[in-house]
């Protein structure tokens, strides 16, 4: 038997939800950053509804950002890539649910075509093939998809987010993400822009909006 000096049960949801069995082997800085994200940015409900890979990438990005935020010469490319991965995954999960609900309302929607790297797909392929965020943006701005979205039994705020705001947010993330994809060094200024979008510093968090709006999407 092993006796802990301070006994901790990692299998219980303790202290507002930021101690889990998945944190058992994590360093203290990871647990501290995760706790801060829950307490100051998202709340336990939103954070725990993020995909586990999103949680890992987000905490990892925050650790690297905070360790280097006072170094003006640091290349924040790796941090931006981690933030982008979070956005790309949560956007995909959101769009999957949205398109599934819309196709349930109008099955012909599944015949909408899109192309990724020269290969053609139809909308029903979206459920099993994750495209880039630029493709998702084009699909979200498709006229038929927007018309059906506007008919959903959800609030005007949710519709506005999907139809108008989300496309602009994707474009902002794309612009910053493309710089890192082309091998350009990312400054702390650009890193802060994408961090502000995701974490909601001084504004609503895009991740929170994605999770909350997704919750309100139901098949009628």
Structure description:
With 220 residues, the chain is mostly helical. The chain contains eight helices and two strands, in the order αααββααααα. The protein has helices spanning 28-48, 52-68, 77-105, 133-140, 143-150, 156-181, 188-199, 206-216, and strands at 113-116, 119-122. Strands 1-2 form a two-stranded antiparallel sheet. Helix 1 crosses helix 2. The longest helix is centred in the middle third of the chain and has 29 residues, at 77-105. Mean pLDDT is 88; it is low at 8-19.
Task: Please write out the topology.
Layout: H1 28-48, H2 52-68, H3 77-105, E1 113-116, E2 119-122, H4 133-140, H5 143-150, H6 156-181, H7 188-199, H8 206-216
Antiparallel strand pairs: 1-2
Helix pairs in contact: 1-2, 2-3, 3-6, 3-7, 3-8, 4-6, 6-7, 6-8
Keywords:
mainly alpha, two-stranded antiparallel ribbon, 2 strands
N-C termini distance: 55 Å
Oligomer class: single chain
Question: Main beta sheet, described?
Answer: 2 strands, antiparallel
Helix content: 55-70%
Task: Give the CA-based shape.
Answer: globular
- β-strand number: 2
| Alpha-beta content class | mainly alpha
Rg value:
19 Å
Stretches where pLDDT is under 50 for at least 5 consecutive residues are 8-19
Mean pLDDT: 88
Range of strand content: under 5%
The largest beta-sheet arranges its strands as: 1-2
**Number of helical runs?**
8
Q: What is the string of helix and strand elements?
A: HHHEEHHHHH
């Amino acid at each position: 038997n092993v006796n802990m000096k301070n006994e901790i049960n990692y299998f219980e949801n303790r202290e507002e939800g930021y101690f889990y069995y998945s944190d058992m082997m994590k360093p203290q800085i990871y647990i501290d950053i995760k706790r801060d994200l829950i307490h100051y940015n998202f709340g336990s409900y939103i954070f725990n509804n993020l995909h586990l890979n999103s949680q890992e990438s987000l905490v990892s990005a925050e650790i690297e950002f905070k360790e280097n935020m006072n170094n003006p010469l640091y290349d924040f490319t790796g941090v931006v890539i981690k933030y982008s991965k979070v956005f790309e995954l949560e956007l995909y999960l959101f769009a999957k649910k949205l398109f599934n609900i819309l196709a349930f309302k109008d099955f012909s929607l599944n015949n909408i075509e899109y192309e990724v790297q020269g290969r053609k797909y139809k909308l029903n392929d979206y459920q099993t093939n994750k495209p880039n965020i630029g493709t998702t943006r084009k699909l979200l701005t498709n006229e038929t998809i927007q018309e059906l979205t506007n008919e959903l039994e959800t609030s005007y705020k949710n519709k506005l987010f999907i139809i108008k705001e989300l496309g602009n947010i994707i474009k902002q993330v794309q612009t910053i993400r493309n710089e890192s994809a082309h091998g350009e060094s990312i400054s702390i200024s650009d890193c802060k822009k994408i961090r502000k979008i995701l974490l909601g510093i001084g504004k609503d968090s895009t991740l929170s909006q994605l999770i909350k709006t997704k919750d309100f999407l139901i098949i009628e």
